[in-house]
Amino acid sequence: MPRNAAIKARERSERPAGRRNLVDIVGQQLRQEILGGVLKPGEKLPSESGLTDRYKVSRTVIREAIASMRADGLVEARHGVGVFVSHARPFPVAGLLNSDSGRISSIIEMLELRAAVETEAAGLAAARRSPAQDEAIIERFEDIDRAMERGVATSEADFEFHLAIADATNNPRFREFLELTGKRAIPRSFLQDQADEIASADYLAGIQTEHRHIAEAISDRDEHGAREAMRLHLKGSQQRYRSLIRRNS
C-alpha cells in the first residue's frame, strides 16, 4: 500500500475514543524512555514522520502525545528545529522538589491503591451513571477549568471530580473510600506545606486533559475506555512521583 494511502487508512480507523487510547499508549512509551534515561536531557526526539512510522499511527496521534508530554514538562519544542527532551525536572510542582522521598513513597502507595479502586469505579460509572450523574461529572470537570482560569488552587475541585465519578457507580462504598483518603487523594495538595498549591499552568492543563478523557468515556458509556483513561491518569501520576524520588536520591 502506498505511504499516503496507509496513513489515510490509519487516520480513518482512529475514531475519537480509539485515538485517545493511541495517544496515551504512545505518550506512555515515550515517557518511559525519557524517565528511564533512554532519551537523555537535551536529546532530540525523532521527527514527526519518524515517530509516525515507528508507532504506526497518524500524525495527529503523535502531535497529541507530544503536546501531553510538553504539558508535563518532559519535552520542549524549538521552532523550526524539533522537539527535545527537557533539561528541567519533569515535575513542575515547585513545592515538591524538596519533599523527602519517604513521604513521596507513601503517596505512590496511595496512588497504587487508588488505581486499583478507581479504575473499576470509572468502568462502573460508565455502565451505571444516570443523566444527572453524567452532568455532575461534567460540572465538576468545568469547576477545575474555572479554578485554573482564576489562578487558584485546583485540588479541591479535582477531588470533587473524582467523588462525582465515585457517586456515578451507585455504590456508596466508592465515595466512602475516597473520603477516607481525604487530602492524600490529591498528592500535590498533600505534599504542599503552604496554604496554596503551586503548579504550572502547563502541568494542570495536562492533568485536565486526562480528566477530560475520563469524563468523555463515562459520558459515552464506554466502560473499557473509562477504565483505561483512569488507569493511565493514575499510572501517569505514579510515574511522575517515582521520577521525583530518583531525581532527589
UniProtKB/TrEMBL annotation:
Highest taxon of the lineage: Bacteria
Start and end residues of each HTH gntR-type domain: 20-88
GO MF: DNA binding; DNA-binding transcription factor activity
UniProt keyword annotations, A-Z: DNA-binding, Transcription, Transcription regulation
Identification of the protein by name: DNA-binding FadR family transcriptional regulator
Statement: the UniProt record of this protein carries the keyword Transcription: yes
The species this protein was found in: Rhizobium leucaenae
